[in-house]
Amino acid sequence: MLILILILFSIQNPFTISYASTYDTYFARVMYEDVYLYKTPVDITTYDNVMFVIPKTYFVELTEDANTDFFKANYLNFTGYVKKDQVQTIEGRPQNPYLTDESFRVYNDLSRDLRSEPTTINGSDTQIAYIPLLCRDLTFYGIIYGETKIEGRTNVWYYCKYTADQEYYGYVYSDYCDEFNYAEIPENTEEVTYIPYPEFGKVEENKDIALPTESKTTTLVIAILCVPALIFVFMILKSSKLISDKKSGQKEVKDF
Question: In degrees, to the nearest 5, what angle opens at C-alpha 225 toward C-alphas 222 and 231?
Answer without folding.
Answer: 130
